[in-house]
Amino acid sequence: MTSFSEHSLKRFEAYQSEVDQAWQYLQSIQNLDGVDVFLKNPLQTKEELYQVYLEYLWLLERLHHPQEKAFYKCHFLPINGYFEAFIDLSEARFSLFQAEYLPINIEEMDWQAIWLAKNRKELEQILSTDFDFKRHYSQRRNEVLNLDFEKLAQDFLQNLAAGTLAETITLSNLQVDEKPLKLKTGFTSLSIYPVTGMAHVFLPEVEHQLQMEAYWCERLEDLYLFEIFEEDLLPLLTNLNALSYTNRFFGTHSAKAYQGVWHSKEFGSVSFSYKDERMRFRSLNTVQKTLIKERFSELVEF
């Protein structure tokens, strides 16, 4: 059984009268035709609503991600048990919204509110006779999701073709859950783990050419609601900047796997692959092994 802090209980008491008002509205909302597109798990009693709100307040105290801390507030009342649909209890609004993690531009996503009722007046309109909730829900979502996805896809591919420089890669965005990096040495191979998909950074920064043999990512074909396919992507990954940009765009912590060959006029060719938080370099000579170890030592302490 969850033990609620004194702070959570005081917050609950501060909004209890508003929660009671919200329950009166919620009973009517749950009876609307088509409301199931918004409320996936309707609550049955006011006591259940109390419990969900207390659990939400308990969770607020444990949020650590800056985007979540900036978005979620104590005056948001969860109304479907999944912390997705809310009534804003603040006096200025008493409104109805859905929380979703959505794209805000080509490379960023953030929590956003899809307002189904921006104030108490709009909430009363929703509850009026013959209101088409499904149509209203679709319109309000489209207002928020009104991004030019085709242009986003084109911009992304153009940036790759132009060799756009990726964001500087540091130890903090190579590590997985801040775990220390390890280096395993074989006769003609090196393996570095656990690292994110940015791990190819250990290849030296010299004149090079990249030949990608495969690239797979769990978000590859549905990112931001437009489609990018592997056959379109591979020809553009001609250098490590492009590979860095792609990995950053698709998320360094997304499940991904890729392999290729790094060709250097000065140091020869290095075969590499990434999968399951492990970067592998194969068929290395002594000079190549030394170079990668030196690059590794620049970021970590042995």
Query: What average pLDDT do the residues reach?
Result: 86
Evaluate the radius of gyration.
25 Å
Order of helices and strands, N to C? HHHEEEEHHHHEEEHHEEEH
* Global shape: elongated
Major sheet summary line: 6 strands, antiparallel
**Low-confidence spans: pLDDT under 50, at least 5 residues?**
none
Kindly state the number of beta strands.
Answer: 10
Between the first and last Cα atoms, what is the distance in angstroms? Answer: 44 Å
- The proportion of residues in beta strands is 15-25%
Pairing-aware structural class of the strands and helices? alpha+beta
Helix content: 25-40%
Order of the strands making up the biggest sheet: 5-6-10-9-8-7
What count of helical segments does DSSP give?
A: 10
List the helices and strands and how they pair.
Blueprint: H1 6-29, H2 46-60, H3 66-71, E1 76-78, E2 85-88, E3 95-103, E4 109-117, H4 120-126, H5 133-144, H6 149-161, H7 171-174, E5 182-185, E6 190-193, E7 208-217, H8 230-233, H9 240-250, E8 256-264, E9 268-275, E10 278-282, H10 286-299
Antiparallel strand pairs: 1-2, 2-3, 3-4, 5-6, 6-10, 7-8, 8-9, 9-10
Can you give a write-up of this model?
A hairpin with a 5-residue loop joins strand 3 and strand 4. The two termini are 44 Å apart. This protein is 36% helix and 22% strand. By secondary structure, it is an alpha+beta fold. It has a six-stranded antiparallel beta sheet, covered by helices on one side. Strands 1-2-3-4 form a four-stranded antiparallel beta sheet. Helix 1 crosses helix 2. The protein has ten helices and ten strands.
